[in-house]
Specification:
The complex is a heterotetramer, with 2 copies of chain A (452 residues) and 2 copies of chain C (146 residues). Chain A is of the alpha+beta class and 452 residues long. Chain A folds into 3 domains: 100 residues, 3-Layer(aba) Sandwich (Rossmann fold), CATH 3.40.50; 69 residues, Dna Ligase, domain 1 (2-Layer Sandwich), CATH 3.30.1490; 245 residues, ATP-grasp fold, B domain (D-amino Acid Aminotransferase, Chain A, domain 1, 2-Layer Sandwich), CATH 3.30.470. Chain A is 35% helix and 27% strand. In chain A, strands 13-12-9-10-11-14-21-19 form an 8-stranded antiparallel β-sheet, sandwiched between helices. Chain A has a 5-stranded parallel β-sheet with strand order 3-2-1-4-5. Chain A has a 3-stranded antiparallel β-sheet with strand order 7-6-8. Chain A is globular. Chain C has 146 residues and is of the alpha+beta class. Chain C folds into 2 domains: 38 residues, no CATH class; 100 residues, RNA polymerase II/Efflux pump adaptor protein, barrel-sandwich hybrid domain (OB fold (Dihydrolipoamide Acetyltransferase, E2P), Beta Barrel). Chain C is built from 2 helices and 10 strands, in the order H-E-E-H-E-E-E-E-E-E-E-E. In chain C, the strands form 3 sheets. A 4-stranded antiparallel β-sheet of chain C has the order 3-10-8-5, with no helix packed on it. In chain C, strand 1 and strand 2 form a beta hairpin. The longest helix of chain C has 18 residues. Chain C is elongated. Classes of the chains: A alpha+beta (452), C alpha+beta (146). Chains in contact: A-B, A-C, A-D, B-C, B-D, C-D. At the A-B interface, helix 1, helix 2, helix 10, strand 18 and strand 19 of A face helix 1, helix 2, helix 10, strand 18 and strand 19 of B.
Chain lengths: 452, 452, 146, 146
Amino acid sequence: MLRKILIANRGEIAVRVIRAAHELGIEAVAIFSEADREALHVRNADEAYCVGPGPVARSYLNIPNIVSAALISGADAIHPGYGFLAENARFADICADHGLTFIGPTPDVIQKMGDKATARAIMHDAKVPTTPGTGILNSVAEATAAARKIGYPVMLKATAGGGGKGMRAVRGPAELEHAFATAQAEAEANFKDGRLYLEKLLDRPRHIEVQIVGDTFGNVVHVGERDCSMQKPSHQKLIEEAPAPALSKGVRSRLHDVAIAAGRAVKYTSAGTLEFLLSGDDVFFMEMNTRIQVEHPVTEVVYGVDLVREQIRVASGEKLSFGQRDLVARGHAIECRINAEEPAQNFAPAAGTLSEATLPGGYGIRVDSHAYAGLQIPPYYDSLLAKVVAHGSTRHEAIVRMECALRETHIAGVNTTVDLCLAVMRDEGFRAGGVPIDYLPNFAAAVAATGS
Amino acid sequence: MLRKILIANRGEIAVRVIRAAHELGIEAVAIFSEADREALHVRNADEAYCVGPGPVARSYLNIPNIVSAALISGADAIHPGYGFLAENARFADICADHGLTFIGPTPDVIQKMGDKATARAIMHDAKVPTTPGTGILNSVAEATAAARKIGYPVMLKATAGGGGKGMRAVRGPAELEHAFATAQAEAEANFKDGRLYLEKLLDRPRHIEVQIVGDTFGNVVHVGERDCSMQKPSHQKLIEEAPAPALSKGVRSRLHDVAIAAGRAVKYTSAGTLEFLLSGDDVFFMEMNTRIQVEHPVTEVVYGVDLVREQIRVASGEKLSFGQRDLVARGHAIECRINAEEPAQNFAPAAGTLSEATLPGGYGIRVDSHAYAGLQIPPYYDSLLAKVVAHGSTRHEAIVRMECALRETHIAGVNTTVDLCLAVMRDEGFRAGGVPIDYLPNFAAAVAATGS
Amino acid sequence: MNWDQTLERIRRAAEFCVEAGLLRFRIEQDDLEIEVRRIARPVRPPAISAGVAVPANGVSTSNGAVAHDEPAHAVLKAEFVGIVRLSRPAVAEGAVIAEDRELAYVESLGIRNPIRSHRPGRVLAVYVNDGEPVEFGQALFAIEEV
Amino acid sequence: MNWDQTLERIRRAAEFCVEAGLLRFRIEQDDLEIEVRRIARPVRPPAISAGVAVPANGVSTSNGAVAHDEPAHAVLKAEFVGIVRLSRPAVAEGAVIAEDRELAYVESLGIRNPIRSHRPGRVLAVYVNDGEPVEFGQALFAIEEV
């Protein structure tokens, strides 16, 4: 088993990983920026090293200082959390070069899955259904021909893309040339890689993802699916749940089978997620996230397994502590992300000091947070303050429990997503289940318009 | 179903009951003293009424103002929580007189179980084993004869007693006369009832209790046992767990059977607890608590049932939502009470303002609390700030999880029991399981002596 | 410790805090930490809040008795939770009243608990309406000595 | 706001806090709340904590460059996380040094990152020991202009 882990992250996920390490009897080393000196993860760790000033490029992405902190602290492994360096194959390579275990899949898998066109090709070979689409397109002419064959509407995507950048929906041939030029320019500017490909644009799909975990002995299991269709206009998720509601038994087992096949195809080790778009009963591979995800707690709560612990065990060379047969879903879980942001202003991040941070608790409630009263929220990082998870024996019970928990969430000093999440819990559309990914942007706009 | 409940309590249990009511779609009315104006239960309720000044006799025990608040708010029921009016049969009667449902057992059952000698007699008739002992003793001479027959050491107890008052251990005949006089005087002074009885004093017993729930249709189920042997010198519990460790299968099922028999004997309706002393493999009835208890969350977490919700359902005239067969224990849960008190000074309550109240969270952790940063702790009430519950698949996992959770509990402004609980989690004696009720006083004294 | 310097820093911090609308400002000095905060209290439940506020210049006890700040004015408060019934004819603001005049009663569990003036005076304010629920300590009348 | 009175209350509170060994003391003044606290920091890793404290009168930037408060003195800080190696012969406190003198280097991932004086001066303080791990922004030397 590993002895000492450096957590190359901040916020609630750093707190989460420190706890998992401690529960395994492993020492935890924190890193922090000058803006995070008072952060909870710094207090909860056994040691902590400042690695740079507030801006992420100079601190949480400062690979030399992070790796050096791991070495001088005597850590034998680095857990990247999510975001920052979590899906950076080069960072995983550098860790290996310095004798540090990177807690995640192999750099090779990170690399392949990070390139969307490559990932699509691998999935296609593994008989994982992908959206009708193309490989890399070398010209507008190629794109025009492909789009005609696939049928409009289509989506132009950068192979190096992410966060909605380098993506253009194209409704008809007239829009294609302009869309190609702008997407290419945006991808070039953001990722230094302007290569594009095309996909069929699905009509109001749902976002369903499947959690998998693999070990170095070739075992790969799925830990069920999550519905993450409640997304902000930026496609960042706000509310997630497990299991996915309004899913036929056939579709559910197809998703699970396909995820296992995908994991086996790349010999996946560690926790990972296959993201799918669901259109009617058709399932299409979208991308693979080669990291632990923000929304992993809903899966943990429903299946009674600790996924971060499993990541650490697998990285230590241990076998998975459960087989597929041990994994049984119990009840239903919903997660609401409490972000310091203003939903009515297109979810603009809110900076400030938390004058109050009273979080809910009690039966069926799990909270993952780094917030405390007095915390000054630095302007450099993402706005997640807390994840509230409600577990119920049924989806309805989980929704009602979440509604009550949100009413008991008292955060002051900054605007948050609490009220919007509360409105969603009371919304008939959400309660019915199975909403598409454009639901929340419309809902949030309507809430903002009525000023409620 | 009830429509509106007044919660005649404060602190974490008021927050807890408000949440249970809200989850059932029931409105919650809070009461508060002038010292509790800023309390969390006041904020979380739908309405709140000040019923008196800080001292409990004039506020939380002010029956006229509490009942009047229920009536003017249009509540149809009162939940008493624990402590205060929870086991006051007269209060339950008054509620009934005013058309209010008292959420608890019938006044008759409260009355009978509140008189210890009567409760012993009922249990004896129901074939529930009681400690060898007597009925009411009319004189020292009677006591002397009885003590000789039972064999020393014996315990003199007030039939109206509670909280350790009116109790005297007697090691031999020479001590009896003085002990009788002082116990009688103390009982007279505290309970206006000087009647005493004798019980065999057990040698370093364990405190094991069984949770039961009954409904008005005659159904009574047990929800397993708890080990509450970790008690302060005042016999107040500090750490509880479910299931009880180091218990043979035979003893466990005997406890459960006996509890069901006891519940059936009094036609128990609502949640209640039978407290037993365990000496070797012998089980002796001690007393019955006709209320929800502080430590109920460990049972809830292990059995996956919401006991407060069940109390409200039963009081609404509904059947229990589970049968005995549905109740299956999963894993192990431990509760630590985080009190504002100084363990090194005989657990003296600490008053002050919470400058920080950062509570733990994450996988397997449940927190029930009314604490928040900035809360001024009034000097009038009990010192409980938070209950941290760790759930694990094994007892060892629950202990390790609790240890990590306590390390992440940051409370400042007052002294607390966090460090003592942490020391207990790391103690080999506790880890082995099955400690007697004098364990914690000795352990706390040793910890205080080493200054650690 | 250089106290003059520290106190000057606190003064500036506090003034800045007010001017800039900041919620909190923290100063460290040797092994002390000094924090200046704007007070932001939690909101009271609306059903009750209106009557609870103690009038700005009055001081009062909560047992139905009256305490005096300046001799000028005192507040009569409810000691019982119940429904307030104004006496007929109802006293109006500005009315001059005698000692021991029953101004209202609080009906609680069917019992009438009278609210009386303790000395002669003029009614400065009537904080409640007839038939309104009142809680313990709720201000009912302000009486100015005449 | 009566500042003189408030400041006097703070002074007394702070002094009392120190003498009585109290952890915290709070004063309310109009809509401000002023809290005086003994600093009880989370325990920093001992290997690092010693050198982190910024010297009382110095101001410095954290990118290895030097900023001046009064012309009197500046602090050289680590920009890289690593192990500090003092140059031989090691400079002692009180030593007068030339401009651009290499005082130490921080070894990070096998690379030597030199720490140089930016102008002539006298070494006021050496905050680190040879071979000690240092973090970003950690104070290494204080240099007084001469």
